[in-house]
Amino acid sequence: MTGLEPLIPIFFFLSVASVIILRGPLGKALADRLSGRAAAEDPSEAAALKAELDDVYHRLEDLEQRLDFAERLLVKGREREGLPRGG
Asked: What is the pTM of this model?
C-alpha cells in the first residue's frame, strides 16, 4: 500500500475543512435550502424590485408604440413613392 499513504493526510485535511465549512453560515444556509425554509426576504427590497419592474414594463410599452409608429410611417412612405415592398 505504498501508493495510498500520501492520500491519508490529504483526506484528513479535506474532511476537517469540510466539517468546519459546513458547520458555519454556509452549512446553515445549505441546510435551510434543503429543508425548504427560504430566507426571509426584505419587504423594502421586494417593493423596490417591483417598482423597477413596473418602470421597465412602461418603457417597453413606449418602445412598442414608437416602433408601431415608425412602421406606419415607413409603409406610408413606400405607398406614396410607389416602391415595391421588400421582403
From this structure: 0.45
Q: Assign 22 a pLDDT band (cuts: 50, 70, 90).
A: confident
How far apart are alpha carbons 69 and 63 in whole angstroms?
Answer: 10
| Per-residue three-class SS string for the chain | CCCCCCHHHHHHHHHHHHHHHHHCHHHHHHHHHHHCCCCCCCHHHHHHHHHHHHHHHHHHHHHHHHHHHHHHHHHHHHHHHCCCCCC
pLDDT digits (tens, 9 = 90+) for 26-70: 888 888 888 877 656 678 888 999 999 999 999 999 999 999 999
Report how far residue 80's alpha carbon sits from residue 57's, in angstroms, rounded to the nearest whole number: 35
